[in-house]
Amino acid sequence: MAAAEKDDARHREKMAKRKSAQDAEVSSKTVEKGLLIVHTGKGKGKSTAAWGLVLRALGRGKRIGVVQFGKGAWETGERKALETFGDRVVWHTLGEGFTWETQDRARDVAAAEKAWAQAKALLADPSFNLIVFDELNIALRYDHLPLADVVETLRNKRPDLHVVVTGRNAKPELIEAADLVTDMTPVKHHFAAGVKAQEGIEF
Amino acid sequence: MAAAEKDDARHREKMAKRKSAQDAEVSSKTVEKGLLIVHTGKGKGKSTAAWGLVLRALGRGKRIGVVQFGKGAWETGERKALETFGDRVVWHTLGEGFTWETQDRARDVAAAEKAWAQAKALLADPSFNLIVFDELNIALRYDHLPLADVVETLRNKRPDLHVVVTGRNAKPELIEAADLVTDMTPVKHHFAAGVKAQEGIEF
């Protein structure tokens, strides 16, 4: 057998083993479950990946709710694009922006409480399959909301409902309650090279 | 002054300082530039965050191209949802699936080369503002494509074009060429609890 043929045979064997391990792993997963998903970390992509999930769910005929706990002033590209899907996406922006924008703790707390009341209303509505609580981690980090109440409410969500929570510095109690947690870790950032936020990419 | 008022005053002062630092940082970023973005790491959200960027860009009136180097067989929710935007999204799935599915290296290389030819055609078309090369990192990792050619081509892209490359194990040479790199790091995964891939979340 020539060297190249041996290589090919070895490759086929290795890949066949991997495929069989992969297949066995996939078939061992049988539970259907609405997931509590957390996107945290200092890197880009936490909210962006949530919008990707919204898009994927829309393609599967699902209905989606969004409550934004921050960035209230921004009219973002993602929100505009999602208007295309009419009332299949219900979007509430109730945050007043980050706390260093408002410099008024009482106002921040009031805004977070209003957003959380809206969040609870969406959680109680059985028409939603996926709900995104964008930047909820920020409100929890600054103690604008009672952590125990939020975690308890998310633990008691409808079993088939998917919920995504975004924002850096996710609380350990929330991570403990979650099914899927990803840390978006910055490796390299263009701001360091003086490049500004780009339309269509960052807003 | 009462303790609560002192706390409020301290908070206002701290937040005012942070806001001024934040404002100064934002105004120091002046360069407009099409970004080369890499989503890598072992966690979830690499492709998903790319679809979030596509959605955001659509909301800003941009035109988007996608070449998928893997997962050819899957009819995904995100692709179906993006059909809503007509020819503003051009989508090519040219991968034949992961190499452990095919067990045939020559076929994998041929598929990657075909996908890369399509990628080059999109890069040469000035109508696109954002192009996603989904799972290109996998093709590079398995040496299905010549790394130097790919990196050189991406370095020489149109200056105002945004390109997103996804997939785990991004090559150091690609990270070096990129403007923005995020590592999606797994913290917790529901597969470990026997929960299977959920429609609308994972496909």
Automatic annotation (TrEMBL), chains A, B:
Q: In which pathway does it act?
A: Cofactor biosynthesis; adenosylcobalamin biosynthesis; adenosylcobalamin from cob(II)yrinate a,c-diamide: step 2/7
Q: Where is this region: Disordered?
A: 1-26
Q: Where is the Cob(I)alamin adenosyltransferase N-terminal domain?
A: 7-26
User: In Gene Ontology terms, what is a biological process of this protein?
Assistant: cobalamin biosynthetic process
State the NCBIfam families in the record: cobA (TIGR00708), PRK05986.1 (NF004637)
Q: Which family does it belong to?
A: Belongs to the Cob(I)alamin adenosyltransferase family.
List the protein's name: Corrinoid adenosyltransferase
| Organism of provenance | Hyphomicrobium nitrativorans NL23
